[in-house]
Each structure stands twice: as structure tokens, then as C-alpha cells.
Queue: 2 jobs
Job 1
Amino acid sequence: MKSIEITRRNFLLGSLTLGSVLMFSKRSSSAVKKNEFIPVGMQVSQQFREDVFRLKLKRKSDSIRLLQLTDLHFNPLRREKKVDEDTKNLVRKLIELTEPDLVAITGDVWNENPFGKGLSFLESSVEFFGTLGVPWLYTWGNHDMLSDYSKGHDILARGNNSLYRGGLNRGNYEVVIENEEGKDLWRLICINTSNYGFLEEQLSWLRGWIEKNKSNTTPTFMIFHIPIFQYHTIWEEKIASGVKFEKVCYEKEEGSAFETINKVPGLKACICGHDHVNDYSGLYKGIDLIYGRATGRGGYGSDLVPKGGKLYTLFPSTGEYDWASITDDNERWHPPKNMRIEKKEELPWLHKLSG
Ligand SMILES: [Fe+2]
């Protein structure tokens, strides 16, 4: 396949153009005033009143396989129609290779809301996820724009195999993985970091979760799209291992979210997306901060970091876990400790790159 070379800069410029189209497109919901700006996901569902999904594992095993996909950037209006099909083929291949128990899709699934088409982009994405034969959860990305987020929550929750229950709390919810006897194995706290990152809106919901779950001892992950500031810290302080080719885009979150995040009982790790050419992780005050591997062929970055996914293997009896970034040739990569790569020529996969 001819690779697509898109830098973050021209990628975002394209998005801005689409954003200005959005400003002048007709809104479909009577609940939303014309041209009223609503941050991503920040409405509530009128239909779904629960914010927890309990997922019973279908197979007996000591471990759980969680496949993270992120930044898919579907764009049906793109001139090169084949790009989205290539992304879908990659997703199918990753699922075939990893046979996950569930998939976590961490945002930027489609590109904005040009001509008010966001809802139809969402519908076709949900339809695609429903064909994968695997339960899936979703957290909102800053590009996942709609005219009506109430409808968006409902479309997501009604999707085939969907675990999404974000409609009650503007995109924040929880998935609890349990065994056949109903015993909790792993908890996944899903946060909507919307346009600007992990701010007071999200923290206020999280404080409520902590209050209700003070005695939690089940291993827990937090899942969201935009990294918190400490992703920057772990790289700067040489705690992290992996590859880094762009600034950590923590948006308006400047470090204060961690104090609350660190109070989540049972929390092992945070996993995020957003920055396509960063794939690293590091332990900050006992919490593992992990970037996913960007998946979408239509997103920037394939000239540096091959598109793929990240497979987490979770061991509920000990709370331990492992992960590997995986590409469609079944190459699995976990950086050795202290591997810190910021130059293209040092990449272990240099021979596979296009540019
Ligand atoms: Fe993003």
C-alpha cells in the first residue's frame, strides 16, 4: 500500500478547515442553538440511565486480552476512498492476530462534523465496530465532533457489542470485567477528555467515583484520549521508555489532574492516544502512564511509527499486566527499559518505514 505521509501540522490545518465548515453547517438538533459551541461529548443521553457496564468473560483463563485502538480518523469525505478501508482491514487483522476479549477505542474515530455529517460518520463507525465480533468500549476524542451529542451517546450505547455507557455522565463511565461467577476481575474507568483534556468536569465525576469505590481492590485502568501533563514529565525526567517524536499535547491540563487520579483505589495504569508518533510508557508515582499505538491510516505519523494497536495482557489474580504494540505483520514491540528514541535513524523498525 502506498503510505500516506501527513504531518501533525497539515493534518490539523485540514481539520481546522473542516471545523470552519462546521461553523456554518445546519445543526440537526432543536436542543442546540445555531452555532452554539458544545465541547465534544458534553451533553447527556435521554435514554441510557446507567453508567456501568458489566462484561462477563466468555472464556475461562488466567488472563484477559485487551486490544487498544486509537486515532482511527475515518473520513468518508476524503478523496482517497481506499484509506478508510485500509484502516478497517488493519483493525480486522489485529483482531485476528490477537483474539482479544475486548477492544478499547480511545478516540478520534472520525474527523470533525463537516456539513453536519458527524452523526453519520459515527453511525458508520459504530456499524463497523459491531461487525468485529468482540465487545468494544469507546472514549471520545477531540476530533469526534457532532451536532447532537445526546444522539451520539445513544448510537454508541446501542451499537452491536458495545460496552459504552457514557450517556448519563457526558462520556464518563465504567466497564467492569467479571468472571462467570460474577467476581470482578478488572475495572476500566472511561473518561471523556473532550476538547481540552482532563479538567474539572472530568475530575468532579472521578471524585464521585472514588467516593463510591473507596474500598476497591480490583486492579483498575483509566482510559481516555488526551494525555495528562505527567506524560511530558516522565519523558523529560527519563523515566519513560519508548519512542517520542512530538510534544505531549496535554491541551489545557497542566498537571493538576494527577493528584485526583492518584487517589483512585486499585489504579494500575492510564492509557491514552492523541499523539500519533509517541509510543512510550513510564511509572509516575506508582501509576503507569502508557500511550497507545495510533491505528488510523488516514492520520499523520506513519512515516515514523507504523500504524497498529496495543495489546494488553491482564492478570487479575496478581494485578500484573504486560503490553506490546502490534502491527499487521504480527510484529510485537515492547521497548526495553531505558530505550529512548527521538531520532528516526534509531528506530528499530526503520527498514519498514515509507518516508
Ligand atoms: Fe486527538
Job 2
Amino acid sequence: MIKCVYCQNQETDSESHIIPEGLGTGPTLLGAVGRSCNNDFGKVEQVIIKALAPITNFLQLTGKRGKRPALELEADFGDVKQRIKVRNPQDLKQRLFSYKTAISSDGKKKKIAFIGPIDQLEEARKSYSEKYPNTTWEDMQSSDISDVAFYLHFDFAIFYNPFCMRAVAKIAFEWWIKQRSPGVVQGNEYDAIRNFIKAGEFPNYPIVSIVQDRTIINAFGPIPFGIHTLFCSIDPHSSNLVILVGLFSLVFYKVILTKRHTALAKIEQLATVNPQTGQYYEPIIRLSLRSGPYISKIEKADCIDPLKAIQNMKPFLLNRLNNGFEAIRAQST
Ligand SMILES: [Zn+2]
């Protein structure tokens, strides 16, 4: 009798997206997860989907309702900073409508840009004038418009957010179940991973950690930014069953699915998911990990607080993110 792999209820009628739907399309798991567990995870995954909007928007991924996620941009112009929400570049064009120089009563010139729906221009100008009476307005030259700078804030804190780590653990767990069967995870050796995914309970070992080892990260170098990476490493000398999850191949996580796995032979399995097409692919790339540390060991670096790990990695990640965006931009033009 098949039971839900999370709560052991005998109801497994729900289709679980191994990669959260908001992070693109991909393989699904059928007949393993009950509806109520699946619904609960929606809330966990929502946190990461929202925070990763700058990436998913850039990759033109659409969520459940077929819409690109909204991005919050900061428009910096002269003395004024404004936050605006856009879904695509066309949105931005529609919203940028008027640039004015305001001259206040003391004769000082202020550069002010109104950014918003066109029908709100007059209203915005009126309310500004009420606040600062005696303001006169000058139309600006179109050349001044190029002075507007847009900033996109990307908060790396999401990568050590416990909700993110649970979502990552869920990806690893469900990929493993998809490879094998719901039956293989019914035993209590998988309780720790279940409790972590379901309730965020941390065991006394680094069940999900951020990979800092450059040998490991570089081994996945051929996989471009934007593609999700999954890697399973089984070593008969270790009882740890470890799966690596590379979210957009930007941040790599090590997930210990169980510490009581008996393996007869060494297995290394690599898979990628293209979140734009949903294509699941098992590339034949010989990973140069043999000389490096085995993934199935628990290393010192795995025990580092994820917050510290991201702080250590930030220059590297920023570089990877910028290069990744640049490569995709170059492809699309
Ligand atoms: Zn359940």
C-alpha cells in the first residue's frame, strides 16, 4: 500500500512539482504525495519564489497563472528615489512618462521624475505642488531622461532562509523518490529529512548546507546559469546518501537524505532541468570530482552557518549572477 511520503496517510492523489512551479517547469511526482501535504508546501515555496523573482523574471519564467513575476525596481533620478513594480520592459516604457525640473520658492532646481500610470501624472504633480507651494515646472530635455538609473535589489539572504533550505531539501527528496519509488523512503531512516521538509526541524548534523568547495562548484561549471542541477552521489564507503541541488546553477546545496544508506557500488548521477522548457536531461559530463573530496562525506565546510557561508560566497555569487545575466542577454540579442 502506497502512503504519502511525508505524513504516511493513505492518500497520494496529488501531483507534486519537484521543482517549485514558480521556479519554472520540470518533472513531477505522481502517486507519492497527498493533497494536504502538497498544499502545505505551497506556503514554504512561496517565500523562495517571491525572493527569486529577479532571476525568474529575467529568465522569462511564468508562474502558475502564466504571468511573469513582478519586479520591484528603484528608479533613481536627481533628488528622488521611487520604487516601481514592473513585469517586463514594456511595462517600464508605459510607466515612465514625464520628467520635470521643479524650481522651488528659494530658486533651487530639483530634478523630479514622475513614474507611474500616465493618468496619474497630473494628480502626482498637484499633490507635490500642494506640499511645496510656489513650485514652477519646466519640461525637461529628452537627453536628461537618460539620467534615470534603475536599480534592482537582489537579496542574497534568501539563500540561507530556512524556507529556502526546506524547499531545496524537498527537491532532492522528491527527485530521489522519482528515481526509485515512494516505497524506498517509507522507513524511519528518512524521518529526519521528512521532519526537516515538513516542519523545519534541524537534526544534529548539517542536513542542508551550502557548498563552498570550489572543486565541487567548478565541476558543474559546464552547466550554464539558469539551469537547475541535480546530482546524486552514492559511495559504498559512506552511509550518507547525498544529493546536490544547484538552484539555477547559482547556489549549490548539499542535502543529506539519510545517514543510514547501504550502497553496494559507487553511483554518480547527474541531471539537469531547464526551467524554461521543463526538459529533464541526464548529460554525460564526466565530473572531475574523483580527485576532489567525495560529496558523500560531511566536511567541515558543511557545518558552517549558512548565513556565514553566503557571506563568504557573496563576491563569487554576485560575479556568477552578473555573468549569467550577461550571457543570457548576449544570446537573446
Ligand atoms: Zn501527506
